[in-house]
Amino acid sequence: MKHTLAVLVENHPGVLSRVSGLFSRRGFNIDSLAVGVTEDPDISRITIVVEGDGYTLEQVNKQLNKLIDVIKISDVSQNSVIRELALIKVSSAGCVRNEIIEIVNVFRANIVDINKNSLTIEITGDTEKIEAMQDMLKPYGIKEMVRTGAIALDRGSKNIKINNEEE
To answer: What is the pLDDT of residues 144-166, one digit of tens each?
Structure first.
């Protein structure tokens, strides 16, 4: 089972290295990783997707809590909004361009760059949506693709605060 963890950390150089090094040393595989600063510039939020059972999740939590830079960890796997972003550059020579634009519209994606030989498409959504669009675009020739890791927020008014406050 995949678990999505939101980890609040000090926004200092080397913190991501220490967190990812912990996973490497302990043999935990990171399925997805995304990092960004929060509304507080002194705090960053790392979203980590790990696969494993309850024991693995418990071990990951215990090891992360040992790191001095880690402020708070929350499992946001359930009842949350989880999204990824992908940019896909696809060949679009002449007659297939309209077909690609139809696919983009069906997936509610956006064309963010265009020239006579290619289109760059931006899509957000869950992993399955992005993979489905990727599969639809493969026959046209994907020239290049980049994806972010998953990011997640709890649904509703629940949020993670640094002072042990969860609403």
So the answer is: 999 999 999 999 888 887 765 54
Q: What global pTM score does this model have? A: 0.84
DSSP string, the chain: -EEEEEEEEE--TTHHHHHHHHHHHHTPPEEEEEEEE-SSTTEEEEEEEEE--HHHHHHHHHHHHHSTTEEEEEE-SSSEEEEEEEEEEEE--GGGHHHHHHHHHHTT-EEEEE-SSEEEEEEEE-HHHHHHHHHHHGGG-EEEEEEPPPEEEESTT--B-TTS-B-
What are the tokens at 41? 């510039």
Long-range contacts of 22-25 (CB under 8 A, 24+ apart): 22/63, 22/64, 22/67, 23/48, 23/50, 23/60
